[in-house]
From TrEMBL:
Its EC number is 4.1.99.12. This is 3,4-dihydroxy-2-butanone 4-phosphate synthase. The gene is ribB. The lineage of its organism: Bacteria, Pseudomonadati, Pseudomonadota, Gammaproteobacteria, Chromatiales. It catalyses: D-ribulose 5-phosphate = (2S)-2-hydroxy-3-oxobutyl phosphate + formate + H(+). Pfam families: DHBP_synthase.
Length: 251
């Protein structure tokens, strides 16, 4: 049975060109750098800074809070959330996109948990595969988000983009994200995102590119007709058809 996304990304000549943005993103993330990930214009239309939690440095967290200026969150897989007993923040989630916020946490060794250094420590602890629930205090200053088990093929959000990219980088399925807000306090869009990326030398990736990458490589492994409907901003409906076929082919 396939358990890791990295098992799925054998090279496929037809998708070589479209693979490039994702492969370059993985290289940057593996080096401990942040990249920019944009969702669809008809979704949140947000640009988030994204990094891997297991190697995030205080400098990267400081960059996020200084120049990103959004909320520093930690997308994690359901497995991590269950092991660390990261319970939902609220009982009835009424967020417009059902972003799966859990109760906030700090690493137990933190003094207050707010500094960039202590937030980086908490983020790394979330990615530590030996960590247990007792290694965290609640509430804290880092906000874990639980990813859809099917990643961006199940939900086209930044949460899933971060955990998919972590898996593709062969890292624990835990990321760090922070929305980019402009001088006026609003999320930046369009050309402002390109300017921000150029100013700081950051790579840009869209969730659509990641969906294409995953769909191409999943299809290469499981059969040619498994592509989700990329015209659909939320690929969940086509993904359920995809999963039916994928599961049938595993039996
Ligand atoms: O709610 C959020 C956490 O600050 C952000 O909008 C962030 O982009 C993650 O949400 P999603 O996975 O829905 O894109």
């Amino acid at each position: 049975m396939i358990t890791k996304l990295s098992d799925w990304h054998s090279p496929s000549p037809s998708s070589e060109q479209s693979d490039e943005p994702v492969l370059r993103a993985i290289t940057q993330l593996r080096a401990g750098k942040a990249i920019i990930v944009q969702d669809a214009e008809d979704r949140e239309n947000e640009a988030d800074l994204v990094a891997l939690a297991d190697r995030v440095s205080p400098d990267v967290v400081n960059f996020m809070i200084t120049h990103g200026r959004g909320l520093v969150c930690a997308p994690v897989s359901r497995e991590i959330a269950e092991r660390l007993r990261l319970d939902p923040m609220v009982k009835g989630n009424s967020d417009p996109h059902r972003t799966q916020f859990t109760v906030s946490v700090d690493a137990a060794s933190c003094r207050t948990g707010i500094s960039a250094t202590e937030r980086a420590r908490t983020l790394r602890a979330l990615a530590d595969l030996h960590a247990t629930a007792g290694d965290f205090t609640r509430p804290g200053h880092v906000f874990p988000l639980i990813a859809h088990p099917a990643g961006v093929l199940g939900r086209a959000g930044h949460t899933e983009a971060a955990t998919d990219l972590a898996r593709l980088a062969d890292a624990p399925a835990a990321g760090v994200i922070c929305e980019i807000l402009g001088q006026d306090g609003n999320p930046i869009t369009g050309r402002s995102v390109a300017r921000f990326a150029a100013r700081f030398g950051l790579l840009r990736l869209t969730i659509q590119q990641l969906i294409r990458y995953r769909a191409a490589h999943d299809s290469a492994l499981l059969g040619r007709d498994l592509m989700p409907d990329l015209t659909n901003a939320n690929p969940l409906i086509s993904y359920s058809r995809y999963m039916e076929k994928a599961l049938a082919s595993c039996i």
